[in-house]
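seq:
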Amino acid sequence: MAATGIKSPSGGGKTTTIAKRIAHANEELRIEVYVPTHALAVEWRDLINKFNPTRIVRIISGRNHVTPGGKPLCNRHQIAARISQAGQSVYTRLCSASSGHRCGDYDNCPYINQFNFGHVYIYTHAYLPLDRGLLDARVPNLVVIDEAFAMACLERIEFNVSLLRHPALPNAASSLCGDISNLLQSGSSLYPLISNASKRGGGLRAAVEELRASAPRPQPGQSDQLIVQTLGSAPNFEPVAKLLEHLKRAFAVKQELQSVDFDAITGQITVHHRNDITRFTPKSSSQSPPEIFLLDATASRETTEVFFTGATFHEFRARRNAHVVQCRSARCSIRSINPNIHSDPKSMAEAMHKLGEIQQLINELSSNGSKLLVVGPVAITGNPSKNTQPLVNVPPHSALAHFGALRGVDVYKDFDTVLVISRNEPSVAAVQDLARAMFYDATVPLQLTDRWVQIPRAYQLKSDPEGVDVDCHPDIRVQAILEQLRESESLQAIDRLRLIHCQKPKLVVLLSNIPLDIEVDALFTWDELVHGNRLEQAWRKTGDVMPIVPEWLSTNFNSLWPTAAAAKKDVQRQQVKKGQFTNRLSICKLSPFTFEYRAPGQRRASTCLSRVACPNAVSEALKGLLGHPVTVIGPLPDSTQ
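struct:
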């Protein structure tokens, strides 16, 4: 199915442009928008209504969605979930049947009423892999899918091998399932069996149909207790039906099966499955397919084309108005900063120390009323919806957020600074499992491995080039999924500050050495980024005046500069003779007043930095520091405060 991908950094205006078009579109058109979260659905609705208050926009939420009044949309959502797990239509089994039976709450059901007339319907991504039901049977004319959606279409099906040998299996499936069980336990290929079953007069199709036809069928109007009894009157064979469908599709294009695991010890079968998107396919040849737009700042062609073959992409580059500083010396893995996952005291203490340094940095970044957004793994920044407590804290004017819950969110656009802690990097096995589901029917098998490979990647530095070795995967399809989870999540965090059109540069601090698709102004070691570079540290420890003389710096701050030569390199690197040196957490340079001074008999003037502009005060301070009087000249013309 054709689709148009629009790839540009968040805040570039693509959402606003599309929302404006939707707001003023022909009222005869059916329009659907798909977003990752309910919160983003609300933002879309409000934006469309901003351009056209008369446009009826309906947000479609799941039966278990809790309304502002604290109640779920469907009073029987738990029963609905059980019917869905059995692979049956919830609407025809619980809400309304062709026989005329209806749920007693039908006419006043908030879930049902969502589907009343509207110009625009907004769904979450969870609806994308679902077939159309009776409530939304009409295929739309225009579809917008906002943000990355592919992961919402992946499914993990798990059941015990004993279900393949259950005595209640219908006849058409019993023999086939028994053979599959034997082959799995012997470690043999399933290909010949499934291939023959597919050719044998629809034998495989007949087995799936019989499995589903044999399922108990509750009816609308029945009590919850009776429905539970009905569903429990026979085993749930829906996982078996899904396995058979999965095998048929996988073996239609290749003989190597990578998407099914079998644990011989526990008997557990795991199927890594991809649900295709079929809800936009026209019901008849007379209907034109919908126009589909994919809006994603970090879109991946490899993952998108699995669902939309031949999708075209338009990429728009835009410069972010930001000052970006990044740690170059540490991965900042979750293990290194989470004391709760360690049992030995040494590792726990090290993680606690590093976490304390992060808290120190948070305190500094959020001082003076600066609005700070802190983004990181759930284990560090918490997740209120799941009662996961954060290990760091921020003042009331700042906020905590976690990876995986930020795409498209607009509530942080007025914040001044974003701190991204660590990186969202799952294990190689976890990423490969997603790839095995995504590409289970690919003609070319995945190249699987048990560890990452190290590949050098360059930072987008505005100065001299520099890079670092990065965990990567040898298969470009697995790598595409990894980057959607890792690099893209960090970029999504950064772009919550809406950096493209902000009038003044905002500060971005990256506590991980993973290179991203963003220009970096300065790289620092962990200690430099957390505590400041050596000149910064010395400057904070001095009084009003600090001589910029290597010998003096080394003598008075020997823990920072063991030798005068080391101090000289820092002085030259930071160009402090011009009265400026880099402050890692400031978009501007630190600009103390600059003075020159000479001791009696000294031929070449030395330089000092001062927090005060009075030459007499500087002279007295230097006399106390150096132990002898000096002649002071300044402040110099290029010195500012």
